[in-house]
Amino acid sequence: MCSDCCHGGECRSGKLPKSRKWTAAIVSAVLFAVGVSLQYGNDAFAESRYRWILFALAYLPVGLPVVKEAWNEGVHGKDFFNEFLLMTIASIGAFCIGEYPEAVAVMLFYSVGEALQEQAVERAKGNIKALLDVRPETAVVINSDGSASVRHPSDVLPGMVLEIKAGERLPLDGVLLGAAASFDTAALTGESMPRRVEAGGEVLAGMIASGGAVRIRVTKPFADSALSRILRMVEEANERKAPAELFIRKFAKIYTPVVISLAALIVLVLPVIADFGFSEALYRGLVFLVVSCPCALVVSIPLSYFAGIGAASRHGILFKGGNYLSEISKLKTVVFDKTGTLTTGRFAVSRVETAEGVDRNYLLALMASVESMSAHPIANAIAEYCKAENISADYAVETVSESAGGGLAAFAGGHSVAVGNMAFLKRVGTENMPDYSSEAETVVACSVDGKYAGAVFMADEVKEDAAAAVNGLYSEGVGNVAILSGDKTSIVAVLAKKIGVAWFAGDLLPADKVNAFTEIKKKSEGVVAFVGDGINDAPVLAMSDIGIAMGGLGSDAAIETADVVIQDDKPSKVAKAVRIGRVTRSIVVQNIVFAIVFKVAILLLGAFGLAGLWVAVFADVGVALLAVINALRIQWIVGGK
User: How does DSSP assign 606-624, residue by residue?
Assistant: First the structure.
């Protein structure tokens, strides 16, 4: 997208760069001010037949780009009847009848208004780019002889080896070489917890090496990295037009020739049916033309959606286009995934149960000592719980054996100890095992010398704002909220009750989730959205009216499938996204109604001679600027982060 575009961001080759546009406007304004002061303060100048020369000099800096644009659009473009043609006819006509100040004012005020509008668009684009463009400017390449060289990431080819120091950001996608390492993925996923990547695992541009220096082998060129694709998506977002934008574009193609025809009728018919000279009729026709310029609509509607997208980005919400911003304003049903969406995906100890005669602290210390031999998230959660409880896991552990997906068996504290799920403990021959098959939480049990000693119950942590997310959606007028999950139904039921969701379903395989969502769509009225992590839920995200990915910017599935991405992983931002969509839609409607009503009123006044060119100029440029200011209110209404 051209950085010097307005009118919805479409690149028009006749446009001046912003700096030159402001220079042209300033030069024109100075000459215009001199001309107007002489016109009304110097009788000799006012009566001179050569005064048009000064106004022509004032006209050229701001008028020529518009005339050139009218010519380019008419000869080389697809829209012969465009707003530039209206401005050109009106201003040249004003020169022909001697209304020189008005002719310059038409172009000068239009040029200033356009420059201000472009700045507003650039500011909205800047909000998005600043949020996303976290790519490093350099990459340290390790050559085949072991030496290092610094290159720009765009000069690094797949297969090259890069070294990234602790605290530095990865410049390109690749695979991890050497030992496992931890990475901060907050810039990509919004997840505050470091992600552990095993040797040979995939790492993405934007991750930060949090443990120590790492080396990666590049797998994708700079242009195809995850972050580059995101930035391209932002640049392309404006191409996905909202229905209101598409309507305005079609409206302008019909509206412009109709207006020119009506202006011609005013010029030709008024002298015949009324006591008007041709000059007066031409003046009224020109007023009609200037007022009729659809700038307020052509500029403010796309800008409203751009401002909405920019405001959303400041809140960590990325819309892929104005059409999705428009669609989310009509949202009636939201379906959430559970794990990683409403919950953190991290386990925490909820309670501890011991067998008769077993000390609680002894059990926890023994379990933590054995679990310290594992890197499993559940093992880490038990260790963190013991640390918080000031329980020391200091038993010596020997002869450890681990069963994948089951647990650990070891010799610790002078005893044979097994820690794992119920199936694992039964497999190693544990006596006196209680029945936890109906338990809604994850159970990690422990046996000592073949006898059941106790268990720790683990629960996936509910995100702090999960309940607020549901309440926020209800307050925004979303009538139906549901949960679909592959987790146990008993666990989903507990979560649903806790956060205020009435309808839920659990024990769903991916195909079952698709079928369940299809049934929800059939029964729902209005727009239906699905909120998931953007990876396992890609099929449902794709079939929803609006797919919303939570903390999934680091995955191809989220980038390619979701329509909206919540960067900071907070489900409450879904309600904020709905709020921004509805505010944007409200302002779009306000601008359409205001512009049409005001312009129709001035058109009628102009046709009856009650409004001159100065009023016409305000009706054109002034209404456009007011509409732009109204569009920028979106960011004020939705507030800061």
Answer: HHTTSS-HHHHHIIIIIHH
442 φ/ψ angles, rounded to the nearest 5 degrees: -75, 130
Among residues 534, 539, 526, 544, the alpha carbon closest in space to that of 480 is found at 526
pLDDT digits (tens, 9 = 90+) for 431-471: 989 988 777 788 899 999 999 999 999 888 888 899 999 99
Judging by DSSP bridges, how do beta strands 451-462 and 480-484 pair with one another? unpaired
Q: What is the DSSP string of 529-548?
A: EEEE-SSTTHHHHHHSSEEE
C-beta neighbour count of 10 within 10 angstroms: 15
Q: Does domain 317-342+463-567 have CATH number 3.40.50.1000?
A: yes
Phi, psi of 530 (to 5 degrees): -120, 135
Domains 139-224 and 344-462 share a fold: no
Helical residues (DSSP H) of 76-141, grouped into ranges? 83-96, 100-132
Instruction: Give the right CATH number for 344-462 from 3.40.1010.20, 3.40.1110.10, 3.20.170.40, 3.40.50.720.
Output: 3.40.1110.10
Q: What is the pLDDT of residues 558-609, one digit of tens each?
A: 556 778 888 778 899 999 999 999 999 999 889 888 888 887 887 788 767 7
Distance, in Å, from the CA atom of 323 to the CA atom of 316, rounded to the nearest integer, reads: 18
Rounded average pLDDT over 207-233: 78
As a whole number, mean pLDDT of residues 297-302 equals: 72
Helix (H, G, I), strand (E, B) or coil at 446: strand
Distance CA 471, CA 476 (A): 9
The residue ranges of every structural domain in the chain are 18-130+235-309+581-638, 139-224, 317-342+463-567, 344-462
Beta-bridge mates of residue 119: none
- pTM exceeds cut of 0.70: no
8 A C-beta contact, residue 142 and residue 161 = yes
Rounded Cα–Cα distance for residues 447 and 395 (Å): 15
Q: Taking the chain, what is the end-to-end CA distance rounded to the nearest angstrom? A: 27
Helices (H), 3-50: 18-41, 43-47
Q: Supply 301's token pair.
A: 């509607």
d(CA 620, CA 294): 8
Q: 339 is written with which tokens? A: 């794990």
Name the architecture of domain 139-224: Distorted Sandwich (2.70)
**Known catalytic residues?**
337
Task: Please choose, from the candidates 289, 187, 171, 263, the residue with its C-alpha nearest in 3D space to the C-alpha of residue 225.
Answer: 171
For the chain, what is the mean pLDDT?
80
Q: What are the structure tokens assigned to 89, written together? A: 């006819």
